[in-house]
User: Fold these one by one.
Assistant:
Number 1:
Amino acid sequence: MMKQRLAIDMDDVLADTASRFVEYYQTRTGNELSWEKLRESSQVQLPDGTFTTLHDWVFEEGFFRGIKVMPDAQEIMKKLHEKYEIFIVSAAMEFPYSMKEKLEWMQEHFPFIDWRFIVFCGHKYMIKADYLIDDHERNLSTFEGTPLLFTAQHNLHIQDFTRVNNWQEVAEMLL
Amino acid sequence: MMKQRLAIDMDDVLADTASRFVEYYQTRTGNELSWEKLRESSQVQLPDGTFTTLHDWVFEEGFFRGIKVMPDAQEIMKKLHEKYEIFIVSAAMEFPYSMKEKLEWMQEHFPFIDWRFIVFCGHKYMIKADYLIDDHERNLSTFEGTPLLFTAQHNLHIQDFTRVNNWQEVAEMLL
């Protein structure tokens, strides 16, 4: 029997991108700020008085390469990989450094995913799969298979999709 | 009415990758060699006596960035872009420098293609589209829409697909 196909997003699903912003904030300013508050700040004042934005950080070399893996993602992905055909589907084109870094990141943390199953794209609606695990409504609402909303601060208000709050819940649903 | 979706490969379809190898050969050795002969050489001897391979060149920074656009591709892509939804679908993951270079290349030569419609991948069979224009049998044979084989030296023997020999023939078929 053909394996079912899972399409899985990277940022804020496999990768704890939100925490990377919090970490950058702490390193750059010497202060702590929750992601909830940080993500709503349009600007960040640095100790030298100049301002930066979260958007600037994403364009910096090294931002993506150093992101932590989401808790339990490695172990559960290994099990999912035995049962499903997995494609990693990540919006990477917007940030020039991110592609090479994201590929290296995948090779380090998820070496059992062959590069042929990694997709960098903008839109995701042309991907044919049975499930898409993603934190963005715009990707899930145009997906033709079963969408699963991976919980993130920015999507707490969304009620249109089956929600998975963490990788343990992904395992419960799909394993 | 929804536009039909075209998926279009880069190397040896939009981009004249074969000529880039011939150009590298000429620059590096000072000699000329047809692509037909060059592609069959497992090694190339350099003037200093050392050997290199075509595969080494692909891994060099700048290889992809400097590839010439295939004749008529720009003009015909502009017209196709009015009539179809176009996704560029390129195998880029294998070569670490290629992704940023291919993206810049697209922005230079095909600025009317928004980055959201560019896909870097390995396998292509999970792409849902009405047509795929590609030079590789392995991509066409697993594609679920209508496959169109773009002629290249390496696929002259293949008879299983509708063939387009150049961009003028793409125009005749799809415009």
Note: Chain B touches chain A through 26 residues (CB under 8 Å).
Number 2:
Amino acid sequence: MKKLYLGIDLGGTEIKLAIVDDAGRIIEEMGIPHNGASIPHIVTAEIIGRARNMRNFDHVVGTGIGVAGDIDQEAGIVRFSPNLGNWKKVPLRTMLKGRLPGKILIDNDANVAAVGAYWLDAKGKARNLICVTLGTGVGGGIICQGKLYRGSTGTAGELGHMSFDHDGPKCNCGSFGCIERYIGAPHLSRFAQGLVEAEGSPVISRLVKNDLSAITPHILARAATLGDPLAKRIWKDAGEKLGVVLASIINFYNPEMIVLAGGVSKAGRLLVAPAARIVHERAFATSAHACKIVVSRFTQKLGVVGAALLAK
Amino acid sequence: MKKLYLGIDLGGTEIKLAIVDDAGRIIEEMGIPHNGASIPHIVTAEIIGRARNMRNFDHVVGTGIGVAGDIDQEAGIVRFSPNLGNWKKVPLRTMLKGRLPGKILIDNDANVAAVGAYWLDAKGKARNLICVTLGTGVGGGIICQGKLYRGSTGTAGELGHMSFDHDGPKCNCGSFGCIERYIGAPHLSRFAQGLVEAEGSPVISRLVKNDLSAITPHILARAATLGDPLAKRIWKDAGEKLGVVLASIINFYNPEMIVLAGGVSKAGRLLVAPAARIVHERAFATSAHACKIVVSRFTQKLGVVGAALLAK
């Protein structure tokens, strides 16, 4: 019998559970609706109950959990999660130990996504890989020689806070001109809103029924696909900015693969094509050619599969 | 008897040889003057002869060589070295094999310096370490979990070509606004020359006997030490620019230690103090606090010791 792993993606609106084999294939999965204001011990009791009822539960040899936020991986504690208001200093590993199978590993969503991208998008083959999570925030995870690299204090991979423009606008993190400040979903949306106000875009205006505050990256991708020149320009600009930072990462880290994941990555080629062009213009040729830049084909699964394979 | 390693630092003006123990202590060392226009097989014959005459040669179990330039580490070939005009596609490992002891490893100067910094400055303890070599070029080497990390094509660590200003002046590498373009020795010198021409500096003018084209980072460090306000300002500016890139590296890689080496690093606190201030202003607090930024106390030895310990 194959060894199986239980993955749990603890999100603010849904908890995903999956039992996964050692190549990252999902054998069995389920979702539980989740209210972000939940109480930790009630949620863990529900997770345990649901997991134990999964058909393949008896073959599970290890459990991994991904949670957005500040996680103490070594102690297995959720220090703080932006999506889960009541989850402060929650000793999640202790609460689950002995009640879910095997070793229990806990990590943040970006690290878990990187493990997922390594197994799903790279099929375990790109030994040095960067996963860039593009959503409200911009984050990342680093695979080094086939293993998750967490850095010295578990805070590696914060590539959303690499500098795009040292003299740029203030970022939430306290620094200035971080790439997240330009291409994080709310910033990208606000930037687009300003441009539409200034220049007009019938397509975007129609898609948001003239409520420009309703512009999202999803709307911008639809507008670009419909041929809207302003939306196309916004994606080109976002891709080029991302490309500058990816070129720095490629010169520094020389990965075999960069996987873009998260909501904003759904723009696909609209974002990747200009980013890749800038990378080839700016990064060392050897390193640029060696690095495939792709959009994850498994964005929705990276968290739960990566969590499961943390335990591998 | 302890295991010993032979290190060779193949520079354009001197070849250093050292026999080193497994903690990086130099047991025996020597230098051979070297003309950069040398013929490879003549130089290798001299190296072999000199090495074999070293007193501890019989205890050497491995040999490492550092060469500036483009090195094929796997094949042991010097593809190209900017300091050694005739060294093109030189199969250095094959030429030395069986004539120098043990496994023979070859790598570029920045990677070798990182290994040296890991053993000498960090005493083998900072498991994730970045060495930044500040000279004519700006380069770097990455230690990951106690081992040299070369990336997917051996080109990792090119941190001199991380972006400082995406819209900045063209760099030799073809990109724009790379940090090397500001703080590489010739750029720093030219920048200083322009400022001295525009604003005047009696101290710097005296040190270069009014030949402003003779300004070097070394002169600028002396002028600053003598209290020259313009020189101090130039170092503050260089340190702050370096700090922006180090903050990006720290957010991405979360190292325990960054070691600055090379000629420009001799400015010491003049450079490190503003860089560290910017890092603490810009990088994530946890990562910034976890990372010591130091000037190597062993700049002249990093190459030869790091080369020796490649073979460890």
Note: Chain A touches chain B through 49 residues (CB under 8 Å).
